[in-house]
Amino acid sequence: MTRMITYAEAVNEALRAEMRRDHRVILFGENVSSGWRPATKGLKEMFGRERVRDAPITETAFIGAGVGAAIAGLRPVVELMLVDFGLVAMDQILNQMAKTTYMTGAAVNVPMVLRCVYGAAGGAAATHSETLTALYAHMPGVKVAAPSNPYDAKGLLVTAIRDPNPVAYFEHTLLYPTEAEVPEEQYTVPFGVANLVREGVDATVVATGRTVGMAAEAADRLRGDVSVEVLDPRTLVPLDEEAILRSVAKTGRLVVVDEDYERCGFTAEVAAIAAEKGFHSLEAPVARVANPNVPIPFNRRLERHVLPDKEKIARAIKAVMKS
Amino acid sequence: MLMSPGISDERLLDLYRVMVRIRSFENGVKQLMKEGRCGRVSLSAGGEAVAAGVSAHLTSDDQIGSTHRPLGHLVAKGADLKRMMAEITAKSTGTNRGKGGPYHIFDKSVGALGANGVVGGSVPMCAGYALADQLRGDGSVAVSYYGEGASNQGGVQETLNLAACWGLPVVFVCENSSPEVQRMLGHEIDYPQLSIDDVGSRGAAYGMPGSTHVGWDVETVYTAAGEAVKRAREGGGPSLLEFKIYRLDGDMDSGYCPIRLLRERLTGGGVLTEELDAEIWDAEAARVREAIDYAVGSPEPELIDAYTGVYAEET
């Protein structure tokens, strides 16, 4: 049975059911026992302070503890209150979490989920607003999931928890209150399978995370003039290249959108894949809508100016249609 | 006769054997380096008493995390000598299939989890091992080895705090190999690495017992580690042990050589005869030769192996 719940409740539900299903699943991070945080609310009361524990504000120590606990046989879900704060713990994330499986010849593995809360939420400035998915996707050994809606939020988190590898799971702050139909029962959304959000024939938009909704709105607004296909890869690693290339082969035009920095970002990766493997399908240069390589400004007018939105996406679609 | 109060002669002989095993293994590695059969490996001569004295209290259900000078810790924990030697020589039969090297040796079967190439890198992970031990509730413990240089790392300080806050069953073992100059070996710069004399004093800053000991005397190490491990096993939480050691060249000349020191004591006490001593060294040398033969005779990884194991397979 499905009913309307929020994205944050979907995260909460996935955690609750997986913790009930598998005693090895534990949760820790800053303030995870707090009643104010919707994604983890009620879990401490349900599972106790041993399995749901608040960590001191020391990302290196508690993320490293997640890596160790995973190697030692647990299934830790570690919450990074904001993805920006992970920058103080890069050794544990990008060296130890990412590489230990490979460096041990797969003698050990790291079944850990790092829940990264991310995104510009309005006037929080550059160290509390970033996306940084590309940073994680760049490092071999990490899987990267970025659900764009409550259904995927639940299904992808279940998959992430059951995956034998470290998964960086990206939850956008502004998606927390969005609602959608979500089944009550536990289900999985597979990694590496893109979601066809809108079907179209003139142009393909590949968007991730919060920008998927913007891309769908842009597509709806252009309906009648341009038939836009919107693809949500759902996971950046592994990436459903085939779905992207299939769509580009059909439309011949590609716009790539995300909230991360443009330079060496996910949008650059998708554009490169299209150039390498779909070049002969392309009828126009690829367009990108992403942060124009500036730290997120505090002033909200400036913040809006550098972030993607549906108008920018619509403009980019029109631009690729003209050339 | 009993050589030492609280430690049986038999136990002392066991400790001696382990220390000889470590020294022999590392001397074997040294020989391989000289012959150009492996790259540069950071050796731990001088620290054998710490590795042996701590690990004597551990079983294969307990975990250790180590450093970029890990061989003593790994040997004492019981890691497979042949597969370690194969890893050091980058062979496909190595503990890590030739993809980690000596600074990243893991042998999960004995809880050696593992060496780490980043100074202080394994310390937060040890909190995770201890967390798993705590939740399992079977009395297992983790030991986190690091050096005086790593003791300054933010992650190490953070982990001391986390372990104390969560009451984790972990013993932090800091091997201070520059007991006088307070400068990390190989980093003899103008300024000291440490602003204090004793790293053990940092335990108090995090609300755990911290103590400083002579690390070339295996009886001292054994006794101090025994108390800390017992405390952790019984749910008493973490402790910090600092052992002062001198890094040696691998010979027995130094007065700080833990093997020489114990040998003199055991010989003087009549526990170790010259014959038995020779027997012990010969037996360990034979094991090392066997390990070297295994490593030398093992194949390199295939090129395709560069692409495997980035991710673990679904199980």
Main beta sheet strand tally, sense and closure of chain B: 5 strands, parallel
Using the coordinates above, name the CATH class of the largest domain in chain A. Alpha Beta
Query: What pair of chains forms the biggest interface?
Result: A-B, 46 and 48 residues
Please give the number of β-strands of chain B: 7
The low-confidence parts of chain B are none
CATH architecture of chain B: 3-Layer(aba) Sandwich
Written as H for each helix and E for each strand, in order along the chain, the element string of chain A is EHEHEHEHEHEHEEEEHEEHEHEHH
Encode the helix/strand succession of chain B as letters: HHEHHEEHEHEHEHEHH
Low-confidence stretches of chain A: none
For the sheet with most strands of chain A, the description reads: 7 strands, mixed
| Architecture per CATH nomenclature, i.e. the level-2 architecture of the largest domain in chain A | 3-Layer(aba) Sandwich
Q: Strand share of the residues of chain A?
A: 15-25%
Condensed summary:
Chain A is α/β, with parallel strands linked by helices and 323 residues long. Chain A has helices at residues 7-21, 43-51, 59-71, 90-103, 133-138, 150-162, 211-222, 241-251, 266-277, 300-306, 310-322; strands at residues 2-6, 25-29, 52-54, 75-80, 113-118, 143-145, 167-172, 179-183, 195-198, 203-207, 228-232, 235-237, 254-261, 287-291. Chain A contains eleven helices and 14 strands.
Show the helix and strand layout.
The complex is a heterodimer of chains A (323) and B (315).
Chain A: E1 2-6, H1 7-21, E2 25-29, H2 43-51, E3 52-54, H3 59-71, E4 75-80, H4 90-103, E5 113-118, H5 133-138, E6 143-145, H6 150-162, E7 167-172, E8 179-183, E9 195-198, E10 203-207, H7 211-222, E11 228-232, E12 235-237, H8 241-251, E13 254-261, H9 266-277, E14 287-291, H10 300-306, H11 310-322
Parallel strand pairs in A: 2-3, 2-4, 4-5, 5-7, 6-7, 10-11, 10-13, 13-14
Antiparallel strand pairs in A: 1-8, 6-12, 9-11
Chain B: H1 9-34, H2 48-55, E1 63-65, H3 71-77, H4 81-88, E2 106-107, E3 112-113, H5 122-136, E4 142-147, H6 154-166, E5 170-176, H7 202-205, E6 210-214, H8 218-233, E7 239-244, H9 258-268, H10 274-297
Parallel strand pairs in B: 1-4, 4-5, 5-7, 6-7
Antiparallel strand pairs in B: 2-3
